[in-house]
Design a protein that fits this description.
The protein has helices at about 5-10, 30-45, 140-160, 185-190, 235-245, 285-305, 325, 330-345, 360-365, 390-405; strands spanning about 45-50, 55-60, 75-80, 95, 105, 110-115, 130, 170-175, 195-200, 205, 210-220, 265-270, 275-285, 310-320, 350, 370-375, 385. By secondary structure, the chain is α+β, with helices and mostly antiparallel strands. The strands form four sheets. An eight-stranded mixed sheet has the order 1-2-8-3-9-16-10-15, with helices on one face. Strands 12-13-11-14 form a four-stranded antiparallel sheet. A three-stranded antiparallel sheet has the order 4-7-17.
Length: about 400
């Protein structure tokens, strides 16, 4: 089975995660997919294959080095689930052969078009075969491209025993898209010295910095009174919540920030006169600025309560931290990935992740874990696409990493 065939098979599985179920995996489709992959890995002849009740699948490509020769054990990780942002059920992928440029009509009946006027990155892939959606679902390259690349790389290494390597561990986990992918990941059982998540975007991406992240829920208590007789009696929680929103810096939001700039992002607002709840996510690469952002929310809550006593309550919960502090002491693992990319004919693009990754949480659990491109673009929506040559290069990068580690 080719890399492309694998990917096209994998996207048939509906593995959309759901943060409201309070289960692991959060949806049954992820376990069905994991069981399918388990059988595939058994068919390839991998060793130490385990699939636990939480949907964490692990396996080993055993060392083929001479007896007594040992090298570090390197791991590769990808996630089973797709984003809750859009349906991943009944995905209908299509290959656009030798993309000629210009608009790609995804769904003529619904007028859905993937256009370089909206997505100029398309122009970088003229002449390449692209896999696109039919415009009614996401594609699932995040992260089924990563899974296909890892398994295809392992398959290649099995077919080329002349490539000497140590033990290689692979793992596929559930629920990355809802921030729980690493929660029940057994780092000790995995047993790698370090690993790479194959979960980045376009070709060349290599990331070992990510946001520090927190979620904040701000609740405003009001008092409802008949509006005709409400003077000096009514407390409209929605109006007070709006006052809170405009007290935050308007330029420190996702739509006004880039690179290392952090932000406050209002992700939901639910309200009535009597009760309004705002949910924010707080992001910053710098830990000190991250802590100051949380303190700013606390300061604003106190200001609201000074004007409207006991109106505002605030709950802040940290989600994950910047893995840079855990990667820098073992920076050579990033250097190996960069060298592997160059050997595969890929120009590395080392950049911070403006988001999170399972690798961040795993790094803090003792498994240093930078993030490497899987090749897809426009994740989480109907305009998602993946160039086939980018997936092929990702597979090559995995093989080159294994080669380099085998020589250490």
């Amino acid at each position: 089975m080719t890399l492309t065939d694998r990917f096209l098979e994998y996207v048939k599985f509906d593995t959309q995660s759901d943060e409201l179920t309070n289960m692991t995996p959060s949806t049954p489709g992820q376990m069905i997919f994991a069981e399918y992959l388990q059988k595939e890995l058994e068919g390839l002849g991998l060793r130490d294959i385990t699939l636990d009740n939480n949907g964490y699948l692990m396996a080993t490509l055993p060392s083929n080095l001479p007896v007594g020769v040992t090298v570090p054990t390197v791991g590769f990780i990808a996630h089973l689930d797709t984003s809750p942002d859009m349906s991943g059920r009944h995905v209908k992928p299509r290959i656009v052969k030798a993309y000629p440029g210009g608009d790609i009509v995804l769904n003529e009946a619904e007028g859905i078009v993937l256009s370089p006027s909206q997505f100029p990155e398309l122009d970088n892939y003229i002449g390449q075969d692209l896999i696109v959606t039919d415009g009614t679902t996401l594609l699932g390259a995040d992260d089924k491209a990563g899974i296909a690349e890892i398994i295809s790389a392992v398959d290649y290494l099995l077919k080329h025993p002349e490539i000497k390597h140590g033990d290689v561990r692979i793992a596929f986990n559930p629920d990355e898209e809802i921030g729980q992918g690493a929660h029940k990941f057994d780092v000790k059982l995995f047993g790698a010295d370090w690993a790479y998540t194959m979960d980045g975007g376009e070709i060349g991406e290599l990331e070992y910095e990510n946001f520090n992240a927190a979620v904040a829920r701000v609740t405003f208590a009001g008092r409802n009174v008949h509006p005709g007789y409400a003077k000096h009696k009514m407390i409209n929680s929605m109006r007070i919540a709006n006052q809170f929103v405009i007290m935050l810096p308007r330029w420190e939001t996702p739509e006004h920030t880039e690179d290392y700039e952090g932000f406050y992002h209002l992700v939901s607002m639910e309200g009535t006169v009597e009760k309004t709840v705002l949910t924010y996510i707080i992001r910053d690469h710098d830990r000190d600025r991250f802590e100051r952002r949380k303190k700013e929310l606390e300061h604003l809550a106190r200001k609201i309560n000074h004007e409207f006593p006991d109106c505002c309550s605030l709950e802040i919960k940290d989600q994950y931290y910047n893995m840079r502090e855990k990667i820098e002491p073992v920076k050579y693992i990033v250097d190996i990935a960069e060298e592997a990319m160059r050997l595969a004919g890929v120009t590395p693009k080392v950049q911070p992740i403006r988001g999170g990754t399972d690798g961040a949480q795993l790094s803090f659990k003792g498994l240093p874990c930078p993030n490497i491109f899987a090749g897809g673009l426009n994740f989480h929506g109907r305009y998602e696409f993946v160039p086939i040559p980018s997936m092929e290069k990702a597979e090559q990068v995995i093989v080159e990493i294994v080669k380099l580690v085998g020589k250490k």
